[in-house]
Amino acid sequence: MAQSKPLSDETARTDGRVSGDDLAAARRVLKTEQDALAALAESLGQPFVDALNLIEAAHGRVVVTGMGKSGHIGNKIAATLASTGQPAFFVHPGEASHGDLGMVQQDDVVIALSNSGETAELSDIIAYTRRYRIGLIGMTGRAGSTLAEAADVALVIPDSPEACSIGMAPTTSTTVMLALGDALAVCLLDRKGFTAQDFRNFHPGGKLGQRLLKVSDLMHSGVQLPLIDENAPMSEALLEMTAKSFGVVGVIDAQGDILGVITDGDLRRHMSKDLINQRAGDVMTPGGISVRSAQIASEAVAIMNERKITALFCVEDGKPLGILHIHDCLRAGVI
User: Fold this and answer.
1) In what order do the strands lie in the sheet with 285-286?
2) What 8-state DSSP symbol labels residue 193?
3) Range of the domain at 38
4) Residue 290: pLDDT above 60?
5) Maximum mean pLDDT: which of 143-147, 245-249, 268-272
6) pLDDT one-digit tens code per residue, 63-91
7) Cross-sheet strand order for the sheet of 290-291
8) How far is the C-alpha of 289 from the C-alpha of 293, rounded, in Å?
9) Is pLDDT above 70 for 17?
10) Is residue 238 domain-shared with residue 292, that is, in the same domain?
11) In CATH, what number is assigned to the domain containing residue 36?
12) What value does the mean pLDDT take over residues 111-136?
């Protein structure tokens, strides 16, 4: 069996040192792309607003298309739009020419990406949008290109050099297109008043979904609530606290409004032989810290950490609706 040859000194680094040339090249790439993004920000004008208006006025979806590296960027733009409340999907221009044009409807808007503006594979989908009067936004690096001339709105990115040493590999141009797509998505998000809860509805899985859980998603309610009347003896309050296992009991008045809470700390402060004969209202800590059902659970965790407590009542209009324990948040992955 043939043995693999060890790498030569020219192709391997074994001393752990970092080449200054490598770092200089990397910084040059980032600086080139940074300058292009700054130029993009300065160049934004009415065409960008027109593109937003065209998308907002459409009753259908945003169809994003592009070939090669532009296609990969288009895929990401479509995904970002969809995840921020704007129905969108990506259509490969080659597949579009072989039947997938049927996915594009008259109420849709097409965003076509091509740095040169002359990508041959886009010709069929561009012609299709013109034939059926489908809104077309062209994202290109050339104002006089076929794509720019055909589009209802041309988003022309600044003329900036590609970041690679040969000036040919799509680097700067794709970075700028990606950023321009993000700008469109965020502006549309703001126009729609898209909220954190809306965002969570589209991202129910993973750490993001956990971070956006609400108090109402995790709290205990109904018969699980540890509550006691203010005039009840502490013997009953202790039984309620033990039975519900939250380490706290809420004290309510005759109308069901919460007046305060009794915690382990309150028990220690009032420890005496006649503790069990005292009224719950005499032992409780008046008021107390509470949260609302619509609050993000991570906010409740922050309150519990700050106050050094392990449970919070959810209170609306003075009435206790639920109780949230730190263990519920930990089990759900809320940190």
Assistant:
1) 227-229, 248-252, 258-263, 285-286
2) T
3) 23-194
4) yes
5) 143-147
6) 999 999 999 999 999 999 998 889 999 99
7) 290-291, 311-316, 319-325
8) 14
9) no
10) yes
11) 3.40.50.10490
12) 96
